[in-house]
Amino acid sequence: MKKLAILATALSLLAGCAVVPTEAPAGAFQTEADFTVTLGSDWSRWPSQINPATSGEFLTQDGMLLNRLHFITVADGEGFVRVARGQELPLYAAGGSEFDIVDMVTQSLEMVGYNSVEAMDIRPAMIDGQDGLRFGLTGNWTNGLHVRGEVAALPTGDDLHLIFFMAPERHYYDRLAGEVEQIMSSMDVTAD
After folding, report:
1. Which positions ≥6 away from 183 have C-beta within 8 Å?
2. Would you list the DSSP string of the chain?
3. Superfamily covering domain 20-185
4. Tens of pLDDT along 108-167?
5. pLDDT digits (tens, 9 = 90+) for 66-90
6. Rounded to whole angstroms, how far apart are CA atoms 151 and 163?
7. How many CB atoms lie within 10 A of CB 7?
8. What is the mean pLDDT of the chain?
9. Is residue 46 within 8 Å of 58, Cβ to Cβ?
10. Distance CA 143, CA 187 (A)
11. pLDDT band at 5, cuts 50/70/90?
């Protein structure tokens, strides 16, 4: 009986420490990446502790394999994918070119299960009143499913603030592209 009581206590303590997805309601959303965005509808929030592939948190509406909206801040000399020890990681270099940012993002996504990732429509963009970068993505998931994405990147000081969206090209990308565009346009790195 004493062993059962100890086991029950241990399980309840572990359950209290568990990190699970939570709701991200429409409206202002403070990201773990130290910037805010405005969500047009409710999403499911997956905190960084349960994000197996990349640093940072992500939101989804239909499940992590069907659409993901990532929020990440990468420091100079750091990367955003979780890799095994000794594996070479694409790193952000403050002061690098726009193409260095594009290469870091595409190479990083290829490390976490996307194949043949290509950037398209690379363009300068004003993000939160500062010079940023926007570009689209295409590629395939490991199961062969064709995916599309969109990236908003804003270098500030030694940090790179990133929002990227990935979803299957059929149905899921088109259904959320308009809302994702509004979310990316609402990035605010100056909010407290």
Report:
1. 37, 38, 39, 40, 69, 163
2. -HHHHHHHHHHHHHHHH----EEE-SEEEE-TTS-EEEESS-EEEE-GGG-SSBSSEEEESS-TTT-EEEEEEEETT--SB---TT-------TT--HHHHHHHHHHHHHHTTEEEEEEEEEEEEEETTEEEEEEEEEEEETTS-EEEEEEEEEEETTEEEEEEEEEEIIIIIHHHHHHHHHHHHT-BSS--
3. Mog1/PsbP, alpha/beta/alpha sandwich (3.40.1000.10)
4. 988 888 889 999 999 999 999 999 999 999 999 888 889 999 999 999 999 999 999 999
5. 888 999 999 999 888 887 677 788 8
6. 6
7. 10
8. 85
9. yes
10. 32
11. very low
- Please name the residue that has the structure tokens 């399980």: 11
- By residue count, the chain amounts to 192
Structure tokens at 10: 């241990």
- Joined together, the tokens standing for residue 151 give 């990236």
